[in-house]
Amino acid sequence: MILIADAHVNIAAGTDRPFFRMLSVLEETAEDIIFMGDIFDLWIALPRFEQTIHARFIAWCRRQKARREIGYIEGNHEFFLAQEKGDAFTWATDRACRSDGRGTLFCHGDRINRQDRNYLRFRKLTKNSTVKQLLRILPAGPFWTEQIKKRLKHTNAAFRNRLPREEILHLLSTAQAAGAVRVFCGHFHQEAFFRQGGAVLHVLPDWCGTWKVTRLDPATGEVRHLHWQELRRLSPAP
């Protein structure tokens, strides 16, 4: 299973090209895939706001879900994706976490830090049905897109570059009490590992800064962080 977090794909930055090359490489493997949130720099999954890269990605996921599991966890840079595009994936969720029912919990991570009140307030104000309907009908779609981008950059600036250790350990304790032995999250744009009792938590590297993805072997629990070009060495699809 391949986990991809925080790609922040952006045409202006040219990161769309290596991202779609990576997807082509993944087509040749037998791996299930979970997109762990913030895959695009901004994705408002409503018709007037989507770009060609979003449509291209959705088409790829629709094709691939016939061959493998394709999961998607919304991050803070996705809006209304699970509601509007959920049928493009094996599963998609806008909840904070997703359990595989076998002891592994997957989270984007933006709601881990309960002290980040400015961001949590911003999330509550923007990710709701009222805002969704307003965005459908309001003119000046590009203007609102830019406003959301600016707010995302500045809302939690003080929290973005540090790991909230106490909050992460709280999540790990809660997950373990619910039967999880492994937790994966992104969002923090740095690689880290926590162990508490018999449970472990992996903070995933950000694709946009490292070109790394994470491979989980569900049978053994082995976890590797590797450059996406190393995916060529994995077992080919049958």
Task: Summarize this entry quickly.
With 238 residues, the chain is an alpha/beta fold. It is 34% helix and 20% strand. The protein has one domain (2-113, 164-233): Purple Acid Phosphatase, chain A, domain 2.
Task: Explain the overall architecture.
The chain has 238 residues and is an alpha/beta fold. It has one domain (2-113, 164-233): Metallo-dependent phosphatases (Purple Acid Phosphatase, chain A, domain 2, 4-Layer Sandwich), CATH 3.60.21. 34% of the residues lie in helices and 20% in strands. The chain has eight helices and 13 strands. It has helices spanning 16-27, 52-64, 81-85, 117-126, 129-137, 141-155, 165-177, 207-210, and strands spanning 2-4, 33-35, 43-44, 70-73, 78-79, 91-93, 97-99, 104-107, 182-185, 192-196, 199-203, 212-216, 223-227. A hairpin with a 2-residue loop joins strand 10 (192-196) and strand 11. Helix 1 (16-27) runs parallel beside helix 2 (52-64). The two termini are 15 Å apart. The model has no long low-confidence stretch (mean pLDDT 91).
